[in-house]
Design brief:
This is PI3K/PI4K catalytic domain-containing protein. By secondary structure, the chain is an all-alpha fold. The protein has a domain of about 40 residues. It contains three helices and no strands. The radius of gyration is 20 Å and the shape is elongated.
């Protein structure tokens, strides 16, 4: 890694300072993701399937 330090640093700097990539999460998106995760966990608990596939559980319901 020390021999390729300059190349790695260049890549990390691009990722860090790229204005096209949004590194932050707004509160609305965080709330949506949290609610989506809780809903998926509740469905998996209420409708367990042998393979654990939530999609099949939704199709059967």
């Amino acid at each position: 890694m020390r021999s390729s330090q300059e190349a790695l640093l260049t890549i990390v700097e691009v990722l860090l300072y790229d204005p096209l990539f949004d590194w932050t999460m707004n509160p609305l998106k965080a709330f949506y993701l949290q609610q989506h995760d809780e809903h998926a966990e509740a469905n998996a608990t209420l409708n367990p399937t042998p393979g654990g596939d939530e999609i099949d559980a939704h199709r059967k319901a």
